[in-house]
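hey so i finally got around to running the thing on that chain from the lab meeting. sorry it took forever, my laptop kept dying and i had to restart like 3 times. anyway pasting the input first so we r on the same page abt which one it is
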Amino acid sequence: MGDSHPAILLNSLTKVYRRSHLGRVRTTLGVEQLSLTVEKGEVFGLLGLNGSGKTTTIKLILGLLFPTEGTVDVWGLRMPHPAAKTKMGYLPEMPYFYRYLSAREVLRFYGNVSGLPSETMGPRIESVLKTVRMTDHAHRPMREYSKGMLQRIGLAQAMLHDPEILIFDEPVTGLDPLGLKEMRELIQSLNAQGKTVFFSSHSISEVEKVCHRVGILVKGRLQRVISQSEWSQTAGGLEGLFVDVVTSAGPMEVR
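ok and heres what got predicted. didnt touch it at all, straight out
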């Protein structure tokens, strides 16, 4: 599946949040008229300030939110399509796990939820634990884990069913320098295996090191898509281009 289609295709995607309070309806724009193609085997980074629409975009791709207008296709399948969902693995910004369970118990739970065959589940769990370097700690309850360790188990969960597309929301938030390096190496390793990786981040330096292309979101609109060759040939690099795009879009609204 997917060879003749892009990994992710967003077409004129708009999401408006409507909240009702005491009979008054307040609307907030999530994203507006967002069109984007992510190709198979690409590492694509979504950059933007807080409130720019990064998490909304990711949830729309995953089918966790329904668009107000526009469409999302994954491997040519219109979301929310059950077959497309099985092709994606997701790491939220703040992964939450039952604190009293061990890592192996958590992964077995997610393996059951995602329909992994029981005969292959054990070896697959050990394989992803080894990939994220958590084998030696997998017997410990999650309440004893650091932020970086929880992040690694979140990654193991996302990779458990061997998806073709991995989607990470702010995967480097709160990680120490060693954790940053490990995350970078893991993304590069997954991409070397042919996986498509789509992730959002504040960290321009990390995005710059691993992405083939980057999209810059400002106030819910995709202002620009920049390729690695562009920022590598620009004096200020990706940071300079990002600042130019954000500032030229005008003052940020508090949302």
